[in-house]
Amino acid sequence: MPSIQLKHLSKSYDNHEKVLSDINLTINDKEFFVLVGPSGCGKSTLLRMIAGLETVQDGDVYIGDRNVSQLPPQDHKISMVFQSYALFPHLSVRENILFGLEDKKISKIELEERLNEAVKLTSLEKYVDRKPKNLSGGQRQRVALARAIASKRKVCLMDEPLSNLDAELREKMRTQIKELQRNLGMTIIYVTHDQTEAMTMGDRIAVLNGGEIQQVGTPLEVYNNPVNQFVAGFIGTPKMNFLALTRTENALISNNYDVNIPLTVSQATALSGQNSVDVGIRPEHLKLSEVINSQLTGTVINVEQLGNETIVVFDCLEHKMIAKLKGQQLFVLGQKVYFEVDLMNMHLFEHTTQRRILAAFEEVSVAEGCVG
Amino acid sequence: MQNKLILEQKQSSAKVQTKSFTGKDLKVALLFLLPSIVLFSLFVFYPMLKTIYTSLFLTSTGSKLVSFAGIENYLIAMKSSVFQNGFKSTIIFVLATVPLTVIFGFLLAFLTSEKIRGMAFFRLIFSSTMGISVAASSIFWQFMFNPVNGYLNKVMLFFGQKPIGWLTDPKYAIYAVAFATIWMNIGFIYIIFLGAIQSIETSLFEAAAIQGVKKTYLMRKVIIPILSPTFYFVITVSIINSFQAFGQIDMLTKGGPNNATNTLVYQIYQDSFINLNSGRASAEAVILFIIIVVITLVQTKFSESKVHYQ
């Protein structure tokens, strides 16, 4: 059963600047759904429209089977965790968690039960009498989560809840939130600009850009099969490399012959009639070659040693390309390097529209099909 | 090597500590403070000390100090029935103005704090009294209170009531002046509260809206506690202003009728400039000063536990 449905949602400010256009989404019950995109892409506005904090101008928001588009926030029956946590500074952790609940007809025993459950799940037992100013960033974040838990609402909206935490804590909280969601069977819509969070937490993710949904899918679907160059570049770190190349009969080449990538049969077929092609190659799909003038030639401009892997930044066709190599590889700045491309994992995009022609994932299926 | 490094660090931190208070720094600091020291001395400290000094003397009608009188001026002032009556009027005036100004100022600010189209008009109207001088406001209220042509009495007649001598009946005069004072002061209080409410983080209101709390719960549980420093400031300033109200009393009633509005400040003015008794007026001014200091101290002490600073 779908938990939330968005139908043709649009939003503009001052009637001319479109913030969101024709958003259609179905979020399933007990799903961890992530809205990811760069700053200003409209993801927070979309979340706030689901919460009822922004007016819905066009389209409908369904929560369960109720159309809540024109209802005030309290009738959306959701809980929300804000980026700033929205904790009441003068209230203790206990009062913050039970905020608003005392005003409803809930018995004291139940309130106490809800509080105990929420603080236990968020490991806040020791801090119930503290004020937010006496808590660390991570603890405050957990109070905000505990408030959402205590509200007992099935749908929880989270607006960049981890962005104020340091990297280590963020990683820890990612796991905690995901575990909580699984254990409590909540439906969570989670907004973030951090694609790592999206990939690691989401059951499904929707990538937004310029107020439009670019792609919806599981993290691996989006990673392996990006529909356009924006999604391909946004998801994955380090970013996917892009090169504008010219197509010959059996290969993609650059004018100065620094790049010469052979095409598989299915790629060549898919590219029929196209002279200019944008190629997308993930950094981990570049392999260092011993052969001089291999498929890709470049000059090393930076090296990052991470211990278990080496990130090489090299200059190719006046583009900064990145290769992620296993182990510890040694390079000298200015050194000429040659790479081979994992052809099965190469993405092809139309040069003008930047849309996908053939994705690596499809190529793998085709290749497997051929073998079979 | 490591020991040397630690030693160097200790030395450098010692240098930082000794550097903070040199004579040169103090001179520079004083130089920066000089303008305010000069201005405060000239317009606050000197008149204050001079008042205390004058209050200890019997003075001539030309404000010359005649002879040292010790606390005699204070004793005379406090024994005088006019002064005692003035004290009573002042307390009634403060009690009639401060709570209502603060409550109405806050309620108006709360009602107009939401971002709704056209709200700016009401904000302008409610804050506009701040831009009107006491003299102009007093004239306006003179017209309103006029026993024959005044609008208030016209309203009374409309409802079949007898006209009231708002400013001429000792029973009503102090409340009439207090009412005009509330009107005059509400603009300032309103602006302070509106600014304070608007500076509360929006997400707190949104979190409350999502929980679906009632307006009264929101006000009691969120807005009033968060605004407690503002309430403290506004109440303190209002009390001091009310104790010192002069312009509207001079314009509307001149302390009358039958000394009903003869508050302490107005009495100080009368003793000083009408009765030409600077010594006694100074003693009364010192008494008023002490009253205000004591009230402010009590208020500070009382509100320490209630005021929440973020």
TrEMBL record, chain A:
SMART domains recorded: AAA
InterPro entries: AAA+_ATPase (IPR003593), ABC_transporter-like_ATP-bd (IPR003439), ABC_transporter-like_CS (IPR017871), ABC_transpr_MalK-like (IPR015855), ABC_transpr_MalK/UgpC-like (IPR047641), Mo/tungstate-bd_C_term_dom (IPR008995), NA-bd_OB-fold (IPR012340), OB_MalK-like (IPR040582)
UniProt keyword ATP-binding, yes or no: yes
CDD domains, per database record: ABC_MalK_N
Keywords: ATP-binding, Cell membrane, Membrane, Nucleotide-binding, Translocase, Transport
Domain ABC transporter: 4-235
Pfam families (UniProt xref): ABC_tran (PF00005), OB_MalK (PF17912)
PROSITE patterns: ABC_TRANSPORTER_1, ABC_TRANSPORTER_2
GO MF annotation, one: ATP binding
Protein's UniProt name: Maltose/maltodextrin import ATP-binding protein MalK
Source species: Periweissella fabaria
Automatic annotation (TrEMBL), chain B:
CDD domains in the cross-refs: TM_PBP2 (cd06261)
Membrane topology value: Multi-pass membrane protein
InterPro entries, per the entry: ABC_transporter_permease, MetI-like, MetI-like_sf
UniProt main location, coarse: membrane
PANTHER family xref list: ABC TRANSPORTER PERMEASE PROTEIN (PTHR30193), INNER MEMBRANE ABC TRANSPORTER PERMEASE PROTEIN YCJO (PTHR30193:SF37)
Family (UniProt): Belongs to the binding-protein-dependent transport system permease family.
Name this polypeptide is given: Sn-glycerol-3-phosphate transport system permease protein UgpA
